[in-house]
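Lab notebook: predicted structure, single chain.

Context: the supervisor wants predicted structures on file for every construct in the current expression panel, including those that have not yet been purified. This is the next one on the list. No modifications to the sequence; it matches the entry in the shared construct table.
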Amino acid sequence: MTDPVWLSATDLGDAYRKGALSPVAVTQALLARIEKHEPSLNAFIRREMDTALLDARQSEVRWRQGKPLSAIDGVPYGLKDVIDAAGQPTTCHSKLRLHHIAVHDAHVTALMRQAGAVLMGKLATHEFALGGPSFDLPFPPARNPWNRDHHPGGSSSGAGVAVAAGMLPFALGTDTAGSIRNPAGACGIVGLKPTYDLVPRDGVFPLAPSLDHVGPLCRSVADAALLLEMLAQKPAAYTAHLDKGLAGLRIGVVRNFLALCESQVAAALEKAIVALRDAGADICDVELPDLGFLQTVNRVILQAEGWSIHAQDLRNRAGDFAVSTRKRLLPGAFLAAEDLLCAQRLRRRVITGVQELFAGVDILLVPNSFDSICRIDDEAALQHSYARQARAPFNLTGHPAIALPIGFCSKGLPISLQLAGRYHDEASLLRAAYGLERVLPRQTKLPPLD
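Prediction complete. Output recorded below exactly as produced.
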């Protein structure tokens, strides 16, 4: 059998049901792996070793009795440290919240608890899900398991690293301008940003409430579908649609964004497009508005809402923020009401335009990042990479989007693409992603850690 640390949440649930594995054995294996690799990867802010083993033992009893709470009962997972777990710190990776203890579970944490999932700990993020990676904070930045000198993506960086490194089968993160899909892409895993507000945000520290989303980072599209069934406010049988295939799906390739990609990324995307067409999908070219325009609208809203949340601390404790966080939040102080109103008017125009695109296609295909992954300590390259990405537009519009790996660049670092779908049509989005996952060459390469 495959080493259990590399099994997906779906596979672990199946193994528990068949009696081939036990939640205790899997939890112990993951704890041992975390102990071995955490010092070099910095994926965790806090580990819950004792309570994780206790929860795993209780899950094992339920499986033996044939009474599991869900298909992921006993499956370990982690939380980005902006998501509350009762009795644990929610630090947001910041000096300002080192002593904050959550009184209640976030809604998504409560759902995972009800499902019997085993919480292994809180995961590194960029400070307040915005600044970073930063080296002037109480916790070090997470490192990419494919190459520790390179950026793991953010801001759900610890979630991406932990799943990619075999420390966890899945994690829950947040996404305001791409913060699930960026680390998913950089770490070579799957990351799903659902339709805005499909997954509740209660108990999640906000960055920009009208742009914030919560979703899973995991090993497979099947896992993303399974987890969304448990997290969504409007339950749907997403897993039941996965096997419908690609035939007949209308996929619009956002050609003006693909034209921005560096050659290796563009080549991988074109191979994926050919694979989709060969599997029966109807492919056409479409265009979205200018990327710089879309990012500017997103940025104005993010900075205005972010300033409203952090204004008091920025006035009174500015030195306790990381330099990079401070630089990203302070422009919000200089935005006027008319700036935000203008951005919101433009946002509505963008939404109308994207909705019109979806009248002719079921799915949009866009790059995740235009460039290969940069070094973690190259500030200029980091800023360049954040400016050259097509993730923020779908936070602006609220449409669901999923990132999945499609290969590697010459440096051995992952390449990812992004699919976006209609509002609340995650069933078609996941069907398309699952179909693409199955027609691409099977990924057997693992990060060079062992």
